[in-house]
Amino acid sequence: MRNKAAYDQLLAALQPAISPSRPLDMFHIQFHIPPIRPFSAPYTEVALFRVKKGVTDRDKGRLTGLMVHLEKIVSTLGRGHSCSWGPCVDREGLLVFVAGWESPEAHLELVKKNEELSAIGRQIFEIADPEIKHSKLSILSL
């Protein structure tokens, strides 16, 4: 945290939405493309990919290639609101992918119908453990 005062103000504003039983888990992502469109879509998919233990450097390189390919495929389908991905700068072995969708159902339906997307997902899941969520985001004014 470079600017503790700004984070304190942000955390105070978010406090009503944070579960007291689970601590807030904050990390910073170096996105390859600014994720403005995915974050302004009706629903935003946030997929965390944690590299599995024992994965080789070659597998990590393959994962990067798969993420580049995933981004290209999703961006060219024209069914979403763009996407972006990047590595976590403060946690080794964590990649984050974000995509904008009309609804979570639209995302799931597309993956079911598109064999190339399904195949990329299966390959990614061989290398990294996924945690995928969909959320409606809104702008917070401080």
How would you describe what is shown here?
This is ABM domain-containing protein. With 142 residues, the protein is an alpha+beta fold. It has one domain (24-135): Alpha-Beta Plaits. It has five helices and four strands, in the order ααβαββααβ. The protein has helices spanning 4-14, 36-40, 57-77, 104-113, 115-127, and strands at 43-51, 83-87, 94-101, 128-135. It has a four-stranded antiparallel beta sheet with strand order 2-3-1-4. Strand 2 (83-87) and strand 3 (94-101) form a beta hairpin. Helix 3 runs antiparallel to helix 5 and helix 4 (104-113) packs across helix 5. The two termini are 18 Å apart. The model has no long low-confidence stretch (mean pLDDT 88).
How do the strands and helices of this protein lay out in sequence?
Elements: H1 4-14, H2 36-40, E1 43-51, H3 57-77, E2 83-87, E3 94-101, H4 104-113, H5 115-127, E4 128-135
Antiparallel strand pairs: 1-3, 1-4, 2-3
Helix pairs in contact: 3-5, 4-5
Protein name: ABM domain-containing protein
Organism: Heliocybe sulcata
Task: Provide tags for this entry.
Alpha-Beta Plaits, alpha+beta, 42% helix, 142 residues, 21% strand, 4-stranded antiparallel beta sheet
At the third CATH level, what is the topology name? Alpha-Beta Plaits
The number of distinct β-strands equals 4
- Which percent bin holds the helix content? 40-55%
Based on secondary structure, the structural category is alpha+beta
Spatial gap, N to C terminus: 18 Å
Which residue ranges are poorly predicted, with pLDDT under 50 across at least 5 consecutive positions?
A: none
- Overall geometry: globular
